[in-house]
Structure formats: structure tokens, C-alpha cells
Amino acid sequence: MTSPRTTNLSLVDTDPAELAVDAIVIGVHSQPGGQDATSGLAGTLLLASGAESIAAAFDGKLTETLALLGATGGPGEVIKLATLGTVTAPVVAAVGLGPEPSGAAPAPETLRRAAGAAIRALAGAPRVALALPLPDDADASAELRAVAEGALLGGYRFAGYKTRPQPTRREPVAEVLIAVPDAGDAGAQAEVVRAEAVASAVRLTRDWVNTAPNELRPPSFADAVADAARDAGLGVEVLDETALAAGGYGGIVAVGQGSEAPPRLVKLTYTPQGGGNGKRVALVGKGITFDTGGISIKPAQGMWEMKSDMGGAAAVGAAMLAIAALKPAVAVSAYLPMAENMPSGTSYRPGDVITMFNGKRVEVLNTDAEGRMVLGDAIARACADGTDYLFETSTLTGGQVVALGKRVAGVMGTPELCERVQAVGDAVGEPAWPMPLPEDVRKGMESDVADISQVNAGMDRAGHMLQGGVFLREFVTDDVAWAHIDIAGPSYHSGEPTGYWTKGGTGVPVRTLVQLVEDVAANG
């Protein structure tokens, strides 16, 4: 199941007032505390740069009219206005950018969310132009990248499974034109190419996460990833249940043995031309295609969202497709352990002792802590293959949501690498916050019968997110810098659409992973 239409993106440097489009989007800033002298409305609006010719066509009455329609300039607010022939486009859509920043253009994330909100609000309009503020300086690439990504992701819609036409459902915008100072500039064109590659990966991640779990079980998920990777020119290795058992992947086998759909481990390999810069990056993503909790079964309420428990693997697999397209100068391998955690007569049990890929033995206390079991094997395999940096991402713990909410990921591991993840996440709009791995948490996971308990030996949930990170650390070799990114909250959005997030899978942290790989390629 895939999204029905991909938005096409291009650059223009024509006067926005003369563009032959179905709608033109401009930005407006809020200015609380003032009063419009003409209308007497509390608060005034300030048009953002890029809207000058549109404002001139309205004889200076555009902000007054927008205010009368209820515009406040609040972030993400979209107000549509019929132009009645004042400009070529029949509709002007004003998107809120919040207060005007002092001495600078709006932050990239503000523009990314604004572009996404505007394109989503204009569904049904085949051709839309964005005349948002883009500086003509060193920051231009970041701002243009944000607008392009927001437009492409805001237009996403999952195809769904409805059998009847939906009369009120409008088609996503088919073509987006972004107004820039120079449409022929090579740097600007490169940003469009990059945005298309990255947004395509995010959209694919969303498709995989949103797919019904009966249609995306481990074998079919592995096939989908492998097929897409081969088409992209990546190296592909798929281990089935027989190969996993023979190879000693005890964690993946244990979690998957309760399901009739057997587990898989998919390895993808990107080899740069000329060998790259000599560094090696490993990406690891959790691929639990559905998580009932197993014998330690979850409550029924909300369990349907556990189709998203493969969000880490989806993000890693799709990020590799973007990496193949962007061709960074660094070697990258990806490891996607896939299993379905089901209760049955063959399920693994609390009390089981599992021998992992690296030989460590784990006492299982809670079969619902299955993600760390499959990830432990995959991380150990990545380290055995050899890598300098390891980035792992997973919908691992409810503790992440409790501690950091639904937009900020938790990141644990090598302190310097965690700081790098945080910096990149802030830059791309996927924030992450470094968390500690205290020794007292590790002490609480001591087992009487094995090398480590899967969770706290007394079932104490204090520091639950940290327990996941402490467990995964056991499978990272000392010479590898690593970061575990817990995306339990940010990977799935169950609320109403906002910014460039639609309901369902978000695609987090594809953009972080791609940027991290590019950063290692550029800086080592």
C-alpha cells in the first residue's frame, strides 16, 4: 500500500503576482499588542518578505483583509482569500510564521512547518506556488531545504483501504513551485534534488508504518525492503529463520518464535565510489511488525498502534535509499531485525535464558521488552562486521514518552556522539535529548542466573528508558562510538495533522540519520 500521489517540486524566479497557479502562499507574522489603525482590530499583521508584489496588488489592504478573516499570524495558521483578479492566482493563502524574528529570517523549522501546513490546507489545488521568506545569503540553503521538505511532506497522504469514494476528500497538491531569487542557481537546484530524495524516504517510511499489520509481517517487510534496496543499487543480505538459528541470533529467534510469520534480519550495504573517506557507519533499526507483548500481553486499549513498532527499521531502510541517491563519501551498512511478537504455544517466556549473537546470556523477565532482544543481536552483528560509528533507532520504551513527550527523542550512548545527534536533530527539526546511562540502573539489571536481566530484576520501572539503553550497551564493542535513539513518541502521530506531520507514521528519524551520515562523510 503506497501513497496515491507524489508532489512535484520546482523553482521559479518569476514575480509571484504573475504566476499561473491555482494558489499563492505568503507568510505573515503576528505582532501582538498593537492595533490596526484602519480596522481597529487588536493586534496587527506583518507580511513576511516574498509577499511584496502580492501586497502591492491589493493596494496595501491585504493585511487588513486577512485580519478581518481572522488571521493572527500564529504558527501554522492558514487563511485563504479569493483574489478576485488582483493577481493571477485565484487564491492567496496566508500562513502564520509567528512573531517576526529580529534581524534574521524565520527559523528553518518554522518554515518547514508553515510550508507543510499550507500545502495540506490547499489539497485540491493542482498547482501551488510558495512565496515564503528565503534569504539571499549563507543561510539560504537551510531555509530553502526546509521549505522544500515541508511542502513535499505536507502533501503526503496514505492511500488507505477504503472501498468507497470519499466525496469530501481532495487530492493532494500535484505541483509546488518555490519562489527563489535565482531559479537557475546550482546550489538551489541541488537543494531541491536533496529534498526530493530525503522526502521520498520519509514518505516511504510513513507508508510502511501506516500499512496494516496483516499486510506487513516480517517476511513481506523484508521482501519490500530488499526489493527497494536492490532497485537503488544497494547490497542486500536477508537471513531467514533457519539462517538466524544457525547463526546464533538468539534474541531475534526467541522473539519471533511465537508467530507463524517467521523472523528476518536484513542487511543493506552502501559502498561509496573510491572507498569514501575510510570511515564506516552502521545503522540499526527495530522492526517489530506487530507487538502484542507476547506472553506479557499488552492492554487492549491502543494496541492497534503497535503496528508502528517497526518504525525504526522502516526509517533505517528508507534512509539507506536516500543515502544511495545522495552518494555520500562514507561506507554505510544497515541492519534491520524483524519479528512479530505474538502469544502462542511456541512463544518465548518470562524466565527463559537466551544466548545472544555475541554469546551473552539474557534472563527474560518481560516478553514485552522484545525490542532490545532483537536489537542486541543486530548491534552485535554490526560490531562484528566492523564499524566506527553505530546509530540505532527504535520505538523502544514508553518511558521515553513519559520523560520527553511525543516530539523529542531520547538519545543514549557515547556522550560525544549523543551531542552530535542532538545538534543534527535540532538542525533538521527532529529534536533529541541526551540521557544518562547510570551504573545504578545497570546494577538493578543483575541476574541470578544469567549475564544480565532483560529489565530491572525487581521489575522496577524507574528509569525505564534508561534500562533500554543500558541493556543495548552490553552489545556494543568498546571501540565503537554509538548512539541509541528512542523514538517511541516521535515516530507515530495519533493526533490531528500539524505542520508537515500527518496522522500516523511521521518518518522520524530519517532526516536525522541521513544528515548524520552526510556529516560523517564530510567531517569524519
Automatic annotation (TrEMBL):
<keyword id="KW-0031">Aminopeptidase</keyword>
<protein>
    <recommendedName>
        <fullName>Probable cytosol aminopeptidase</fullName>
        <ecNumber>3.4.11.1</ecNumber>
        <ecNumber>3.4.11.10</ecNumber>
    </recommendedName>
</protein>
<keyword id="KW-0963">Cytoplasm</keyword>
<dbReference type="Pfam" id="PF00883">
    <property type="entry name" value="Peptidase_M17"/>
</dbReference>
<dbReference type="GO" id="GO:0030145">
    <property type="term" value="F:manganese ion binding"/>
</dbReference>
<feature type="binding site">
    <location>
        <position position="286"/>
    </location>
    <ligand>
        <name>Mn(2+) 2</name>
    </ligand>
</feature>
<keyword id="KW-0464">Manganese</keyword>
<feature type="binding site">
    <location>
        <position position="291"/>
    </location>
    <ligand>
        <name>Mn(2+) 1</name>
    </ligand>
</feature>
<keyword id="KW-0645">Protease</keyword>
<dbReference type="GO" id="GO:0006508">
    <property type="term" value="P:proteolysis"/>
</dbReference>
<feature type="binding site">
    <location>
        <position position="370"/>
    </location>
    <ligand>
        <name>Mn(2+) 1</name>
    </ligand>
</feature>
<dbReference type="InterPro" id="IPR011356">
    <property type="entry name" value="Leucine_aapep/pepB"/>
</dbReference>
<keyword id="KW-0378">Hydrolase</keyword>
<feature type="binding site">
    <location>
        <position position="309"/>
    </location>
    <ligand>
        <name>Mn(2+) 2</name>
    </ligand>
</feature>
<dbReference type="InterPro" id="IPR023042">
    <property type="entry name" value="Peptidase_M17_leu_NH2_pept"/>
</dbReference>
<feature type="active site">
    <location>
        <position position="372"/>
    </location>
</feature>
<feature type="binding site">
    <location>
        <position position="368"/>
    </location>
    <ligand>
        <name>Mn(2+) 1</name>
    </ligand>
</feature>
<dbReference type="InterPro" id="IPR000819">
    <property type="entry name" value="Peptidase_M17_C"/>
</dbReference>
<keyword id="KW-0479">Metal-binding</keyword>
<comment type="function">
    <text>Presumably involved in the processing and regular turnover of intracellular proteins. Catalyzes the removal of unsubstituted N-terminal amino acids from various peptides.</text>
</comment>
<dbReference type="InterPro" id="IPR008283">
    <property type="entry name" value="Peptidase_M17_N"/>
</dbReference>
<feature type="active site">
    <location>
        <position position="298"/>
    </location>
</feature>
<dbReference type="GO" id="GO:0005737">
    <property type="term" value="C:cytoplasm"/>
</dbReference>
<feature type="binding site">
    <location>
        <position position="370"/>
    </location>
    <ligand>
        <name>Mn(2+) 2</name>
    </ligand>
</feature>
<dbReference type="GO" id="GO:0070006">
    <property type="term" value="F:metalloaminopeptidase activity"/>
</dbReference>
<comment type="similarity">
    <text>Belongs to the peptidase M17 family.</text>
</comment>
<feature type="domain" description="Cytosol aminopeptidase">
    <location>
        <begin position="366"/>
        <end position="373"/>
    </location>
</feature>
<feature type="binding site">
    <location>
        <position position="291"/>
    </location>
    <ligand>
        <name>Mn(2+) 2</name>
    </ligand>
</feature>
<dbReference type="InterPro" id="IPR043472">
    <property type="entry name" value="Macro_dom-like"/>
</dbReference>
<dbReference type="Pfam" id="PF02789">
    <property type="entry name" value="Peptidase_M17_N"/>
</dbReference>
